[in-house]
Specification:
By secondary structure, this protein is of the alpha+beta class. Helix content is 46%, strand content 18%. The protein folds into 3 domains: 115 residues, Sufe protein. Chain: A (Alpha-Beta Complex); 63 residues, Orthogonal Bundle (Arc Repressor Mutant, subunit A), CATH 1.10.10; 75 residues, Fe-S cluster assembly (FSCA) (GMP Synthetase, Chain A, domain 3, 2-Layer Sandwich). Strands 1-2-3 form a 3-stranded antiparallel sheet, with helices on one face. A 3-stranded mixed sheet has the order 6-7-8.
Length: 284
């Protein structure tokens, strides 16, 4: 049984903008019914070229429905350029977190949005039924190519096969491609290290302990707490011991059954991104 946040359950039980826009300016279908997930997005623009109406239809789980629903709410009133900047992490954050094994649902949402925008621009045929990537198909169960694996790995700093599976399901069915995925990841990060002269996951400026404490506090105050407060929660920095950050969740976050998901998919990820990849986060 998955532990979903209240926000996920809200969008799952009462999804917004379900259906298809009449005479859409852009539309696309991504995913594949044979693997259990498919998403269609359509939108229309107003006279100022901002998204006036957007709707979705999905064949998928509760996470897919919730991710699609919240995405449609996020893009309304935005220009296409603004909408394109929305990432799957933004979707996860807006939902207050998703289980690791359901992160691919948020990725499918951004894939569908980008495909629909590309369709509006005449860059892809309207009847495309999956997100197209150049390269060689590695996972035949879910039609994932080596190019997509490298792209997801670099964008999200993914280092393991299980992390790739969480983001695009590759390797999550028959398992025959897992060794090839591992080789792709090993080769990718080896080349990145050789090119940069150091492991790119550790390119943050070396901080003294005092500087690290101050940076952690700054990120919590300016980046993390405001996001949690928008959904009725909050967070308090308690301590930093070596590379372990201890925090206390407050408000709605304190009693949320998915607080561990929030810690890992949002708080820890944000601190790794903005302070140090070595950081781990624990609740008091």
């Amino acid at each position: 049984m998955w532990n979903y946040t209240d926000k996920v359950m809200e969008h799952f039980l009462n999804p917004r903008n379900v259906g298809k826009v009449d005479n859409p300016d852009g539309e696309a279908i991504v995913g594949n019914l044979s693997c259990g997930d498919a998403l269609e997005i359509s939108f229309s623009l107003d006279e100022n070229k901002k998204i006036k109406d957007v709707k979705f239809k999905t064949f998928g789980c509760g996470s897919a429905i919730a991710s699609s629903s919240v995405l449609t709410e996020m893009v309304k009133g935005k220009t296409l350029e603004e909408a394109e900047k929305i990432t799957n992490h933004d979707i996860v954050d807006k939902l207050g977190g998703l289980p690791d094994k359901k992160i691919h649902c948020s990725v499918m949402g951004t894939d569908a949005l980008h495909a629909a925008i590309a369709n509006y621009r005449g860059e892809k045929p309207k009847d495309t039924n999956e997100t197209k990537y150049e390269g060689t198909v590695v996972c035949h169960c879910f039609d994932v190519t080596d190019v997509k694996i490298r792209e997801l790995a670099k964008e999200n700093n993914l280092k393991t096969v299980d992390e790739i599976t969480d983001y695009c399901k590759a390797g999550g069915s028959c398992g025959e491609c897992r060794e090839e995925i591992k080789q792709i990841l090993d080769g990718l990060w080896k080349r990145e290290k050789e090119t940069s002269g150091k492991d790119i996951s550790n390119q943050k400026t070396v901080l003294t302990f005092a500087q690290k404490v101050m940076k952690v506090q700054e990120v919590i105050e300016q980046e993390i707490r405001p996001a949690l407060e928008r959904d009725g929660g909050s967070i308090e920095f308690i301590d930093l011991s070596k590379d372990t950050v201890v925090v206390r969740l407050k408000g709605r976050c304190a009693s949320c059954p998915s607080s561990k998901v929030t810690i890992k998919t949002f708080v820890e990820k944000k601190l790794k991104e903005l302070v140090s990849e070595e950081l781990k986060v624990e609740q008091e």
